[in-house]
Amino acid sequence: MHPKLSRAARRLLCCGGPASGEDLSDEGTGSLRWVFSLRELRSATNNFNYDNKIGEGPFGSVYWGQVWDGSQIAVKRLKNSKNGTEVEFASEVEILGRIRHKNLLSFRGYCADGPERILVYDYMANSSLYAHLHGPLSAECLLDWRRRASIAIGAARALLYLHHHATPQIIHGSIKATNVLLDSDFQAHVGDFGLIMLIPDGIDHEKITSENQRGYLAPEYIMFGKPTAGCDVYSFGIILLELASGKRPIEKSGSVKTFGIRNRVLPLAKEGRYDEIADSKLSDKFSESELKRMVLVGLACTHSEPEKRPTMLDVVPLLKGESKEMLLKLERDELFRPDLTVSSQGTSTPEGSTDSAPRKDQELGGE
Predict the structure, then answer these.
(1) Where does 177-248 have alpha helices with state H?
(2) What is the C-alpha to C-alpha distance for residues 354 and 166, in angstroms, rounded to an integer?
(3) pTM recorded for the entire structure
(4) Does residue 366 or residue 164 have the better pLDDT?
């Protein structure tokens, strides 16, 4: 243990610290936290072998590893991190270590050795939401409606915690399907939170976080390059639309033209054609009332005007079906009023949609 680390940091990194925030029922698992040596992480990951690589993002590469006690870890080897001392890096990491919630990816420790800056997390056995919706695991169709509803609520609760209970407040800045990780029970754990604070001041934050994030960025983020809570809400809305429809945030239509998921879903929602929005891989086994709720909230979150988006304080009860009045108000919002100039026969059906299916009334998700 570095002798210059603060007493709080040493207590946090060695034996775990108390959860911050008000909702103690949501605190994390309390995994041990400690300082890893570079030698230990090289051994755990087979010297950062390519075969151990499980992800690549704007903040660095992620490797699967196994430590001496047999537990599995995810090792994020940072790039573009601040070139400060170990003590300075540990101070930044201390903040991340205090941010604990059962739907946030559990932080286990760090390594600062020479130029290396590495973060260590719990390994998530079921990869990411992206892998199941669009990637190598999508053909297995493991995300039934119950799991999708649970993932939506879990990820929403994580963002609620970051925005309204964490001290200091954490703006994620990189919400996307690859950062919603799934454990062995398919419970959602949001990763990469707080990593923006590790980017040096001289580096363009917007350039880094926009890598591989097309379709998730709020209009004002694209314009001004500054992440806000409203930007996180927008990105989360896109994830809700992905969960409901199975579509990517941006898909090609023809050889050149691209089509955003919001523009694809909104016309159908205005006409109440939710069966045509639903992911065909669900095979009609879903709760239409819950899918409708998810779509309405997702579209509200992606409103082009930031001040008209709900906060995560609103989103969680909406998704859980706890706020009937708020949901009714949302349904009546002008955003969802049918276009008078376009009839249902005149609205084009999105590629991959199905004809109208029988209505589903059984509640499958939520808590």
Answers:
(1) 205-209, 219-224, 229-245
(2) 42
(3) 0.82
(4) 164
Q: Tabulate helix, strand, coil % of the chain (nearest 5).
A: 40, 15, 45
Helical residues (DSSP H) of 51-193, grouped into ranges: 86-98, 129-133, 145-164
- Compute the chain's Rg from CA coordinates: 21
Amino acid at 9: A
The C-alpha atoms of residue 184 and residue 32 are separated, in whole angstroms, by 20
Looking at per-residue pLDDT, the higher value among 111 and 90 belongs to 111
Q: Give the range of the structural domain holding residue 196, as residue numbers without chain letter.
A: 129-336
How many domains does one find in the chain?
2
Tell me: do 149 and 259 sit in the same domain. yes
Residue with tokens 């230990």: 40
Query: 197 lies in a domain?
Result: yes
User: Are residues 56 and 181 both part of a single domain?
Assistant: no
Q: What is the pLDDT of residues 4-20, one digit of tens each?
A: 444 444 444 433 333 33
Determine the pLDDT at residue 211: 53
Tens digit of each residue's pLDDT (9 = 90 or more) over 158-206: 999 999 999 889 999 999 999 999 999 999 999 999 887 776 554 555 5
Helix (H, G, I), strand (E, B) or coil at 119: strand
Tell me: do 143 and 118 sit in the same domain: no
Is the Cβ–Cβ distance between 9 and 84 less than 8 Å? no
Q: Which residues pair with 55 in a beta bridge?
A: 62
Let me know: does 124 contact 189? Beta carbons within 8 Å: yes
Report how far Cα 306 is from the mean position of its chain's Cα atoms: 19
Residues in the chain: 367
Handedness of CA 168, 122, 148, 324 (dihedral sign): negative
Answer yes or no: do 112 and 139 share one domain.
no
Query: CA torsion sign, 323 to 325 to 326 to 331?
Result: positive
* CA dist., res. 179 & res. 56, Å (int): 11
